[in-house]
Design goal:
mainly alpha, single chain, Arc Repressor Mutant, subunit A, 188 residues
C-alpha cells in the first residue's frame, strides 16, 4: 500500500516502513506509483483530502488495518495534520471497491486512538498527531535510504528481498541484538 500525498506541505519528502510490502512516501505535489488502484478522493466541506488510500491486496494485512496504518504513516511524515479531512467513506468505497463497514471500522479505530473524529454531515477529520522527524531530516534520511536501495538492487535483491533484509535489520536494531544493533547502544 502507498500513501499518495495530494497536497504539498512544504519542501522535502520522506519514507516510512511498516509491515512487509508496505511503503509510504511522497514527492511534494506528486504521488508514488504503487500496488493500489485508488484515485484521488474529493473531500466534503474541507476540500480534497491530502491522502489517497491504496491497498496491498496480497499482503495478508486486513484492509481496515492498512487504512489505519496509512493514516498513521501520513501523520508521522507530516502529510496529515490536525484539521485535515480524511477521504470520505463513500469515496474510499468507490475507489477501492471495499465494504463501507471496513472504512468505518478503520475510522473508528483512529477515533479510539484519538487521531481522528467525525463531524456529522461533514466527514472525518484528523484530531491528533504522532511524533515525527523534521522535513530536513526526513529528506536526508530518504536520500540515504535511496542510496541503500540502489546498492541492494545492484547486489541482486528484488523488492521483497530488500524488505526482508530491512525488516531483519530493524528487528535487530530495536531488539539491541549484540553485534547487530550496536550502533544504537553506542549512541545512548
Amino acid at each position: 500500500m502507498e500513501i499518495d500525498k495530494g497536497v504539498s506541505r512544504g519542501a522535502g519528502a520522506g519514507a516510512g516502513a511498516g509491515a512487509p510490502g508496505v511503503t509510504a512516501g511522497a514527492v511534494p505535489g506528486g504521488s508514488l506509483d504503487g500496488a493500489g488502484a485508488a484515485s484521488g478522493s474529493p473531500g466534503g466541506a474541507g476540500g480534497p483530502s491530502p491522502i489517497t488510500f491504496r491497498l496491498a491486496r496480497g499482503s495478508g494485512m486486513p484492509t481496515y488495518r492498512q487504512l489505519v496504518q496509512q493514516v498513521e504513516q501520513a501523520l508521522r511524515l507530516g502529510y496529515l495534520q490536525p484539521g485535515d479531512q480524511l477521504p470520505r467513506v463513500k469515496d474510499v468505497v468507490e475507489s477501492l471497491a471495499i465494504n463501507p463497514n471496513t472504512v468505518l471500522k478503520a475510522y473508528r479505530e483512529l477515533e479510539n486512538r484519538g487521531l481522528a473524529g467525525g463531524r456529522p454531515g461533514q466527514g472525518t477529520f484528523v484530531q491528533g498527531t504522532l511524533g515525527r522527524v523534521g522535513l530536513a531530516e526526513q529528506a536526508e534520511l530518504r536520500r540515504g535510504l535511496l542510496d541503500w536501495l540502489r546498492a541492494a538492487d545492484r547486489a541482486g535483491f528484488d523488492p521483497e528481498g530488500m524488505t526482508a533484509l530491512f525488516s531483519a535489520a530493524l528487528r535487530d536494531f530495536t531488539d539491541g541484538t549484540p553485534g547487530r544493533g550496536s550502533e544504537r547502544e553506542g549512541a545512548a
